[in-house]
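Researcher: Final request for today, and then I'll write up notes for the group meeting. The sequence and the SMILES for zinc ion follow.
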Amino acid sequence: MVDVQCQACTQFSKLPDSLGATYEGPWMCPNCNARHRIKTVCNYLNANSLEDRFTIGQLKCSDASDIREAVAAYNAFASRAAVVMVRRALQRACISKGAKGSKLCEQIEDLHNRLKIFDTAHVALATATRLFGNFGAHPNDDLLDDLSDEEARRALDLGIYLINKM
Ligand SMILES: [Zn+2]
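Model: Predicted protein-zinc ion complex:
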């Protein structure tokens, strides 16, 4: 049995026996779903490299399915799908904390003002970010038409940070 340490969340996991003593190929961390390529020779780990562009690491929220989907989309170069899912995750988390307001930026501000959940710098950042702060201001305007890969990455970073603070 070979222990492999995840390069994203640092957790150790045992490889399934079905892989055999010598294996080379993909491996997904059962804890955080980060994808790796590994190589084992006679039950020794020979190589282990992280393949994903973005990894979540440890998540504190109980229902992480939306976040996992957002990260999977980003890793597959589907930036718009990633932002849609991270907004959904954030909005669901806000609503589960009892946030008031109909727009995401209002909900984030409400949680900050009433429950002191986020620090001021991150609230300012979130509400100034067009992807969190302004979307939906006009009907059918999701602000995703000219989304860059870098913007999607920042939205993921910020979204995951805020969710972990709740
Ligand atoms: Zn992991």
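Model: The first helix runs from residue 65 to 75. DSSP finds six helices and five strands in the chain.
Researcher: Thanks, that's everything.
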